[in-house]
Amino acid sequence: MLRNLMLTALAPIVWGSTYVITTEMLPPNTPLLAATLRALPAGILLLLICRTFPKGIWWLRLAILGLLNIGAFFYFLFMAAWYLPGGTAALIMSCQPIFVILLSTFLLKTPLTKMYIASAILGIIGIALLVTNANTRLNWQGIIAGFAGCGCMALGVVLTKYWNRPTNLSLLSFTGWQLMLGGMMLLPVAILTEGIPHQITLTNIFGYGYLCLIGAVFSYIIWFRGIEKLPVVTISFLGFMSALSACILGFVFLKQTFSFFQFIGACIIITAVWFSIPRNKIQTAPQSYNLKKAN
Q1: A Pfam family for this UniProt protein (predicted)?
Q2: Where are the alpha helices (DSSP H) in 84-217?
Q3: Per the domain annotation, does 1 fall within a domain?
Q4: Residue 16: φ, ψ to 5°
């Protein structure tokens, strides 16, 4: 259990490095293009390696999962970051465990425990201490985009657990199809709204390569593996590690401040993740939902 948890936590920790890579290595004002080049080539690479195809209803299911986990989530994430200060956007996105708790209670029949609710509240408080400041101004479009992204990711995680994975697709293939389909959905939006950069430097290429190979291929493989191995609510709390990673990397590489209150927030986040781990064997055992239907 702990080994799976630590391995899966690497995914949001890697995602936290996206801000540093985007600001320091990529062309400015092209977030959707960066998201597209992060997802689409990664998906194509995995599918070239695996060369397996979905069957029957799984074409539709993978399209839905690709939309929720990749396409729509990335779009709303960058919309929220565009209209809101980064700290406020991160705070809204930290509400994801609440969405997951409610959805998993309805779809997966997961017990709604006081510990889950308390962990979610603790995590949001920790994020607030970590990323917000008193001078932020709110924009209703950004708030809507933030909650929409939250809902997309939460529903995507729960449906991934609910539908499981078809027996004819390996974990690599399952990940690849979602990345490719999500990237294909992002591509026309990115081209229409941002176009193609006039100049691409070697630094830009390294940045895109990192986002594709580490930020997508590696991280999403271990993320979807974690969804199979761990309780879905526990998975959602690991998302808090992304904001923590971003703050620490910003402090180390961008010389950003890291105050005492941010340190307290970081400790609260780690505590919230720890409290979200089920303490009995029944809850920790991987579950398969609708397995016969899925295959």
Answers
A1: EamA
A2: 86-93, 96-107, 114-131, 140-163, 171-194, 202-212
A3: no
A4: -65, -20
Q: Is residue 284 part of a domain?
A: no
Give pLDDT tens digits for 62-106.
999 999 999 999 899 888 877 776 666 777 877 888 899 999 999
Based on the structure, what is the number of domains in the chain? 1
Residues 6+ apart with CB under 8 A from 8: 222, 223, 225, 226, 229, 230, 235, 238
Are the beta carbons of 197 and 26 closer than 8 angstroms? Answer: no
CA 126, chain centre distance (Å): 18
Residues of the chain short of pLDDT 50, as ranges, are 281-295
Look at residue 137 in the predicted model and tell me its pLDDT: 64
pLDDT tens, position by position, 118-135:
999 998 898 888 876 655
Helix (H, G, I), strand (E, B) or coil at 198: coil
Tell me how far apart the alpha carbons of residues 1 and 136 are, in angstroms, rounded to a whole number.
39
| Residue range of the domain that includes 88 | 7-276
C-alpha distance from residue 10 to each of 223, 226, 241, 270 (Å): 8, 10, 9, 14
Q: Is 184 contained in some domain?
A: yes
Question: C-alpha distances in angstroms, 234 versus 2, 38, 151, 274, 289?
Answer: 11, 26, 17, 9, 17
Q: Three-state secondary structure along 40-89?
A: HHHHHHHHHHHCCCCCCCHHHHHHHHHHHHHHHHHHHHHHHHHHCCHHHH
Spatial separation of the C-alpha atoms in residues 215 and 32, rounded to whole Å: 15
Q: What is the pLDDT of residue 177?
A: 98
If you compute the radius of gyration of the chain from its CA atoms, what whole number of angstroms results? 18
